[in-house]
Amino acid sequence: MRYLSFFIRAVSRLNDCLGKWFVGYLAFAIFLILIFEIVARYVFASPTIWAMELTQMLFGAYVMLSGGYLLVHRGHINVDIFHARFSPRRRAAVDIATSALFFSFMLVLLMEGWAMAEDALARMETSHSAWNPPVWPLKLTVPLGALLLFLQGLAKLIEDVATLFGVSLDDAGPDAGEGDAR
Q1: Residue 174: which pLDDT band, with cuts at 50, 70 and 90?
Q2: How far apart are CA 16 and CA 5, in angstroms?
Q3: What's the whole-number mean pLDDT along residues 115-142?
Q4: Residue 171 pLDDT grade (very low, low, confident, very high; cuts 50, 70, 90)
Q5: Which residues have CB under 8 Å from 56's CB, separation 6+?
């Protein structure tokens, strides 16, 4: 059990740190770039050719890399009308049953995302716009984000199996001891 607990803690901490210290600041960077573009366009009458495209690319990375962080903090959508009323064991059983769909989707996303990213990297793909930035780094966020979410889903599945069978895992997540209902 110690190894499973270590795996859960390591994956959860990785996603938590990545979410707090990298992905979270992407939103701030997007905000600053958009403010710069507004000032350049409306105050100095000199719009940029790169600001809107860069913010779209950063937002794409933000979306792809935030999945694991959201799962650590249970921020993904649930049908809480039913799910919240279940006992922890029943909730774990439902989550285990639906995890087959999750893992199927994640495997397809991981494989197809890797194929897309590998192709973009091999061709050193660019956007073909007036600015023409490379898009292969953005496309690499698809399999990376899928892998991080897959690993966090695996950690959650282990927690759910432990809950269903009444097995105690040591503090399993980055928020253990802070009242997080795992």
Answers
A1: low
A2: 16
A3: 96
A4: low
A5: none
Provide the Cα torsion 27, 28, 34, 36; round to 10°. Answer: -160
Q: Are 7 and 158 in contact (CB under 8 A)?
A: yes
Which amino acid is it at 38? I
Q: Tell me which of 54-58, 86-90, 150-154 is least confident.
A: 86-90
Closest of 164, 165, 182 to residue 173, by C-alpha: 182
Among the listed residues 4, 167, 168, 138, the one whose alpha carbon sits nearest the alpha carbon of residue 65: 138
pLDDT of residue 77: 77
SS3 labels along the chain? CHHHHHHHHHHHHHHHHHHHHHHHHHHHHHHHHHHHHHHHHHHCCCCCCCHHHHHHHHHHHHHHHCHHHHHHCCCCCCCHHHHCCCCHHHHHHHHHHHHHHHHHHHHHHHHHHHHHHHHHHHHCCECCCCCCCECHHHHHHHHHHHHHHHHHHHHHHHHHHHHHCCCCCCCCCCCCCCCCCC
Reported as a pLDDT band with limits 50, 70 and 90, residue 180 is: very low
In total, the chain counts a number of residues equal to 182
The CA–CA distances, whole Å, from 153 to 118, 125, 172, 177 equal 24, 31, 13, 21
Contact call for residues 140 and 117 (beta carbons, < 8 A): yes
